[in-house]
Recover the amino acids of this structure.
């Protein structure tokens, strides 16, 4: 990564600071929008954007354990299907969750 940063700085006249591989790993591990458990739940940053703010209330964001625990994507989809009169236990994909949120927010 350091070589690429130096090349970009030289080619484009930039002064991007070099970040070590360990630094990149630290940034990755602190990213609030990565679903590390693969369960459709991210920590998020509440109150920084519409989905970050609504996510915990919709059950698609937040901690899955402890006092700040939020519902999982599975519980969100269960409630979504119940509200639509559909089988609440039907399987869903990550795209289904996105489509459900879009429908709820009236987005195309």
């Amino acid at each position: 990564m350091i070589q690429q940063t130096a090349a970009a700085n030289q080619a484009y006249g930039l002064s991007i600071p070099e970040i070590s591989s360990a630094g990149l790993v630290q940034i990755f591990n602190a990213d609030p929008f990565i679903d590390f458990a693969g369960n459709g739940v991210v920590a998020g940053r509440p109150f920084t954007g519409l989905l970050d703010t609504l996510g915990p209330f919709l059950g698609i964001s937040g901690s899955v354990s402890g006092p700040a625990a939020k519902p999982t994507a599975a519980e969100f989809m269960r409630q979504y299907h119940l509200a639509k009169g559909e089988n609440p236990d039907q399987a869903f994909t990550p795209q289904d969750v996105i489509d459900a949120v879009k429908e709820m927010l009236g987005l195309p």
Remarks:
- The radius of gyration is 19 Å.
- The longest helix spans residues 94-105.
- The CA atoms of residues 95 and 108 lie 14 Å apart.
